[in-house]
Specification:
By secondary structure, the protein is an alpha/beta fold. It has 21 helices and 22 strands.
């Protein structure tokens, strides 16, 4: 008996998913499918991306659709265009052997006229991003009075992206009598409040511990000087022949800068950030999905909703300010039971964050030593020889050449031919790692920095004297200073937007702005001494009509600026 049939699914659905390679239900599917089929209760499902959530709610939704009723019966809300399209595509595959089901994806950045035509033709299931959905509701194109099932997918990411009011407005438009499923990787207080307001006595299921990262991911860290991070990134890519990953950065400017550097250095790289038009974003994602891009540089916001299979590596060029974002980042690899690697590139003052992640996400980091020059060379030679031998074994592929062309080679010693072949290949690869130094920082430096002490004067000390180094424009003295800026959560800003604002008005790189602590109408952060001096000179800058100020935190009384 098909194990999915045992959950109560229709044979036509079981046949479709069997053809797609589904063998056994995942944990979330085992718990969610019977609940959705019976429509007995609302559901809160805590599970990471890549655990089979789309099938967990999608299969029972398809089975519960009444084919003769042409109105919208199910609504699935997702945070991004990419995820919206992916869910709709999966539902169409799942429904292959069912009577025709009207499945429509609606999202911003695409023709609203074409989407309206699709909705009017048939829209029994609508998969939507919040903004475009509200637009279509206001135009009276989408009517939700007959909706019996609502799913909020990746609800935590929708909140992080500022969709709380939109989510609440949409839920208020739906009928009182319905089944609601809330799927989230983490359970924040905001998620809990939405569940308490809009869900009725929900059943709560958790796959793994709350806020935890997937177990199929190897969580690793490397400690290097700040000035060596770019070198470390290139060595990781060069060492792993099969590298196909996402490199997370903190700001749009840094994302673009690193991408440009990698391309100039001969790597297949590109970037995603908020300044890209939708057409540009679609082009980048198309190239990445087809592996024309091996390294995708992205900010946390831009990467939300990316669902790409077979990603081998996630690189954290900087750890996120919001520790929960680490779970979202690393969850982009190890999809559907595969294995993946998540590597955090740390300088010696960032290590204390690692302990916070270990505690919150329940993971244990292992140290990853950045390969030295000799190790990279050996790895590339090994991969080249294996590929060369595999091609040589296929006689049918070999092209025959005239003897007079190859005779000069046949006069050479075998060892000379091998040496010249390898040297030629390494030159083609553009690798020059001869005598390249070891850039790993002593583990003891990580330990002392990880327990960095906060001094009474508001400055931060970490690592050994003289180890601070410089990182482009964000360099400076080793001493770290705690600063105040008069913008915060109530201004609707995100961490990377504060960095972009500081860069715009002071020309200090966002990389200098670390450990942002956002309050109501103000925030604190730390920076090196030289960058702090330059930031404090900010003038003729304003936000929402009020002058921007950056001061030493020790000069501010936090109580005066309570949110």
């Amino acid at each position: 008996m098909n194990p999915f049939s045992a959950l109560g699914l229709d044979p036509a659905i079981c046949r479709a998913i069997e053809e797609l390679g589904f063998e056994n239900p995942t944990d979330i599917q085992l718990k969610a499918i019977p609940l959705f089929l019976s429509q007995a209760s609302d559901l809160i499902a805590l599970a990471q991306t890549g655990t089979g959530k789309t099938a967990a709610f999608g299969l029972p939704i398809l089975q519960n659709i009444e084919p003769d009723v042409r109105t919208t019966q199910a609504l699935i809300i997702s945070p991004t265009r990419e995820l919206c399209m992916q869910i709709a595509s999966d539902l169409k595959k799942f429904s292959k052997h069912l009577p025709p089901v009207g499945i429509v994806a609606v999202y911003g950045g695409s023709s609203i006229t074409a989407q309206i035509r699709e909705i009017r033709h048939s829209s029994q299931i609508i998969v939507a991003t919040p903004g475009r959905l509200i637009d279509l509701i206001e135009r009276k194109v989408i009517k939700l009075q007959d909706v019996s099932t609502v799913v909020l997918d990746e609800a935590d990411e929708m909140l992080n992206m500022g969709f709380r009011e939109d989510m609440e407005r949409i839920l208020a438009e739906t009928p009182e009598e319905k089944i609601t499923g809330l799927f989230s990787a983490t359970m924040s207080p905001d998620i809990r409040r939405i569940a308490a307001t809009y869900l009725k006595d929900p059943v709560e299921v958790t796959i793994g511990k709350k806020n935890t990262a997937q177990q199929n991911i190897s969580h690793q860290y490397s400690v290097v000087q700040a000035k060596d991070k770019y070198t470390a990134l290139k060595r990781i890519i060069d060492f792993h022949e099969d590298f196909y990953g996402i490199v997370f950065c903190t700001t749009k400017a840094e994302t673009q800068e690193l991408s440009d550097h990698l391309v100039r250095d001969g790597y297949s790289a590109d970037c995603l950030h908020g300044d890209l038009a939708q057409a540009q974003r679609d082009k980048v994602m198309h190239r990445f999905r087809h592996k024309a891009i091996k390294a995708l540089l992205a900010t946390d916001v831009a990467a939300r909703g990316i669902d790409v299979k077979n990603i081998s590596h996630i690189i954290h060029y900087h750890l996120p300010d919001d520790i929960e974002n680490y779970t979202h980042r690393s969850g982009r690899t190890a999809r559907a039971g595969q294995k993946g690697v998540s590597i955090a590139l740390l300088h010696i003052r960032e290590a204390y964050k690692l302990h916070q992640i270990e505690k919150l996400a329940g993971v244990k980091f292992e140290r990853y030593l950045i390969p030295n020059g000799e190790q990279v060379i050996q790895a590339r030679i090994k991969n080249f020889i294996e590929a060369f031998k595999a091609d040589s074994d296929d006689d049918a592929k070999l092209k025959r050449f005239k003897n007079e062309w190859i005779w000069p080679l046949m006069e050479l010693d075998k060892e000379v031919i091998v040496q010249k072949l390898i040297e030629s290949e390494l030159k083609r690869m553009g690798i020059n790692y001869t005598d390249a130094p070891d850039i790993n920082v002593d583990e003891t430096a990580r330990g002392s920095a990880g327990r960095g002490e906060k001094s009474r004067g508001g400055s931060w000390e970490g690592g050994k004297p003289g180890k601070g180094g410089r990182s482009g424009k964000s360099g400076g003295s080793g001493k770290m200073v705690r600063l105040f800026i008069n913008v915060g959560k109530k201004d609707g800003l995100k961490y990377d937007e504060i960095r972009e604002m500081i860069y715009k008005h002071t020309k200090v790189s966002g990389r200098a702005v670390k450990d942002i602590e956002m309050k109501g109408v103000y925030s604190f952060f730390i920076a090196d001494h030289d960058s702090a001096d330059q930031m404090r000179k900010i003038k003729n800058a304003s936000f929402n009509g009020r002058p921007l100020r950056i001061d030493l935190a020790s000069e501010q009384k936090e109580g005066k600026y309570n949110s």
